[in-house]
Amino acid sequence: MTRIPWKRVNWTASAFLTVTFLTAVVGTPLYLLHFGFDFFQLALFLVMFILTGMSITLGYHRLFAHRAFKASRPVKFFTLVFGACAFEDSALDWASDHRQHHKHVDEDEDPYDISKGFFWAHIGWIFFKLYPRTLNNVADLKKDPLVMWQDRWHRQIALVVGLLLPAAIGYLAGGAAGALGGFLIAGVTRVVAVQHCTFFINSLCHTIGSRPYDSRTSARDSFLMAIFTFGEGYHNYHHSFQHDYRNGVKPWQFDPTKWAIHLLEKLGLVSDLKRVPAEKILLAELRETKRLADLRLAEIEKARASGSARETCPRLRAAWDAIAERRRQFSRTFAELEAAATKGVRISRSRLAHWKAEAAEYLASLNEPDLMSVA
Fold first, then answer.
1. pLDDT in tens, 10-38
2. Which domain covers residue 345, as residue numbers?
3. Domain stops at, among 248, 271, 294
4. Could you please report the per-residue DSSP string of 180-194?
């Protein structure tokens, strides 16, 4: 039985997370039962959810933690103020944790290491996050006056803008009952919703989903989580290319944070957006294809060496010869793409699409019925 290290518990954070959660799941339903459903309160909740959620994804995450683009002072100020309203600590502290996560993902030094369990990665690690901390990986952010201002005042900002402002707006719209509703729904419940959407990136997106770019990491792509986190759900891509301002890099992937950053660029409010070239992205996908194919080929080779394969079967030999030819073609494609990516040579979209389809066919061919009879 695991013993809880009580001396390491952050009682303030633990109490806040517990009380706000219970208030959201008990207090808010009681309010709705007593006062009824109010479209104004729902609208206020959605506005605050979007403002705070986007400030975490666009500001805390892609701007401050990863420096995926440069932002003007108004954008920085806005995301720092509403990011504080998520009650997820200051941008300085948040970025420090996140950079540590990327540097040591799935290792003991990872603050929210999924190998320590789903609950730990989701929220448990915060219960044992003690202060003060060294924050020795955010020297660049410490040079930013706005970041340091928010680091000093983020709790006060969160209280006033994140909780009291919704209550004040609710009061103006509906008196005392409206103020209570604003505090409970757009305030506390919204905080809990935004926090757990963020937490699910650290837990669910390291548990379920696909790994098209790198299966060596626990990070996974999840369309479902992208819906609730403004595009942050494409986590396998993000861990492969953490400095790209996009998470949903494919045209069909849902990533409103990417679209917002692109719009801000058009308005002249952000600049220097970092984009990973399509050649490097496909190279990562083909490298993963190669890794999976090599594992499958090793299984087949082992079966052939054991004598379980009927080498005299013409159909089986033909299938194996076809695989050998596809493997040689894939190796030539991979080498050509790797050279192009290294030298920064641009390749047409049609050719990249052809190579991707070719790689998918190669991997699928390793599971054809004739070969399945071998291994």
1. 999 999 999 999 999 999 999 999 999 89
2. 278-372
3. 271
4. HHIIIIIIIIHHHHH
